[in-house]
Amino acid sequence: MIGVVERVDEMIRVAGRPRALLDVPMHYCPGCTHGIIHRLVAEVIDELDIRTRTIGVASVGCSVFAYNYFDVDFQQAAHGRAPAVATGIKRVLPDRVVFTYQGDGDLASIGAAEILHAAARGERITVIFVNNALYGMTGGQMAPTTLVGMRTTTTPLGRDPRAHGYPLRMTELLAQLDGVAYAARAAVIDPAHIHKAKRAILAAFRAQLDDRGLGLVELLSTCPVNWGLDPIESLKWCETHMIPAYPLGVFKNALA
Amino acid sequence: MTRVLMKGNEAIAEAAIRAGCGAYFAYPITPQTELAEYMARHLPEAGGVFLQAESEVAAINMVYGAAGAGARTMTTTSSPGFSLMMEGLSYIVGARLPCVVVNVMRGGPGLGNIAPSQGDYFQATRSLGHGDSHGIVLAPSTVQEAIELVGLAFDLAERYRLPTVVAADGLLGQMMEPVTLPEPRTAPPAPAWATTGAERDRRVISSVYLVPEDLERRVLDLMETFRTIQRHEPRFETYRADDADVVVVAYGSMARIARSAVDRVRRDGIAAGLVRPITLWPFPAEPFDRPVGVWLVTEMSAGQMIEDVRLAVAGRVPVEFYGRVGGMVPSPVEIATAIRTAAARKEVAPA
């Protein structure tokens, strides 16, 4: 273990810590990809030089404490309501940069109305949507994004479409709306995919900065603890099961 | 200052604009819709933000965001929408954000109807949403008073960093009265806790305190604020109550009807008076510390405020009740009859 810690320290020394990311331990479980996504968002904030005029909105779920990790002003929203809270901030402070950080239970289930209408209105906000196909914080229940056949604590025999319906592909759905300027799905499973994910996050912030409309990135993530897999297996499972169900790509790009 | 004839809903909207409300979010619902329509026409020209939300759930959360960003902000609704705002109001209390919520109450429960009611007394005064949550609740009884209380609502919300509810009813929202409007004033700059983004230490607005010791400390602070409000902010009005043996207790539109009834029975020699709470929370206990024969609580609801009156009276004398429900508005004759009945039952001597 000591060797691993030294390697991580060495990686941080080489890559550097983004200015927008605070130097504090994260509460996320081992192997969880929230940490990677936090870092990518922070790097983009640094590269766009918007840290001092950015306001984040944290949601409810595993990323409820996102405000502990970013060195920007933050508001913590009720479950699913982050796009409404972000709307309130952005409408009174139109020259600031506002982003939400939401999980799939938050955005696709309880907050489906709020994200849909923020998108329809073309709110100038950026939405970071982290999809791990279940409710992580509450211990692995079925989410609207749970794959068909996938076992969760509330679908112990696997998700049966006849009883539990089908997975909701929010990014494709939202990409149809005129108010959305950028909508993409990426995965954070290996360096090549992580590089693409960062480009998508950058574009989703650009959509806001260029006053084009709402920018959205869905990031396929992992949940080793609730998936019952080790971190490496989780990354593989994301590639072999999540990506076929949730195709990667840019579904809307009104930039340039 | 000129007097103008205004509908209650529109007067509340104009009062909010003149109080420096910079951001307004609402969802259409009868009988408050003219309020939102007035804001749509006039708030943008005053430099403020008007946005029609997709639901009352979204509206109150937009208020949360705007309040957290330092704006003087408001939403308005009617009873079913007020229910939907309970979630957001609890977060607003938890995060200590100031805002004003106007509830133009209508008949319930359920979809009920669009006629005047005071059926949301419990919902407004007992707890704004889940948890140990309170906000200040003001109850105007005339259009003029609604204008004044809207201005006060913003001041109290900002002083205590809590939501202030203006509990009106459909009668007040729909009636037209001559009013004098206050001079416009501007909102203060964003407070030192607002998340505005800047080159300084970051600010966080949150209601999450996962460690029980931390949350207890937070709620104890909140309770200290509640006690301060209970000491300094109770407001009420009395009418012909000094020598009264039968004292009617009523708020809002109901108080005006009760006032007419008091005059009516006074002509018959019954020593009646009126206590009108203006703050429903904190409930004013002071006017109940007087020797009377009987208290008669009248409400356009099934008997909600009567619980606070009973607590204030503490069993010293009988507390009777007369109410109408379902959007029915009692007439002065009805209330006068209820006063006579209460007086006869307690054998209150004619003055």
Could you outline the blueprint of secondary structure elements for this entry?
The complex is a heterodimer of chains A (256) and B (351).
Chain A: H1 2-15, H2 34-47, E1 54-58, E2 73-76, H3 82-92, E3 97-103, H4 104-110, H5 112-120, E4 126-131, E5 134-135, E6 141-142, H6 161-164, H7 170-175, E7 180-187, H8 191-209, E8 214-220, H9 224-227, H10 231-245, E9 249-253
Parallel strand pairs in A: 1-2, 1-3, 3-4, 4-8, 7-8
Antiparallel strand pairs in A: 5-6, 7-9
Helix pairs in contact in A: 2-8, 4-5
Chain B: E1 3-7, H1 8-18, E2 23-26, H2 33-42, E3 49-52, H3 56-68, E4 73-77, H4 79-94, E5 99-105, H5 121-125, E6 136-138, H6 143-160, E7 163-169, H7 170-174, E8 176-180, E9 204-205, H8 212-232, E10 236-239, E11 246-249, H9 252-267, E12 272-277, E13 279-281, E14 294-299, H10 305-313, E15 319-323, H11 332-345
Parallel strand pairs in B: 2-3, 2-4, 4-5, 5-7, 6-7, 11-12, 11-14, 14-15
Antiparallel strand pairs in B: 1-8, 6-13, 10-12
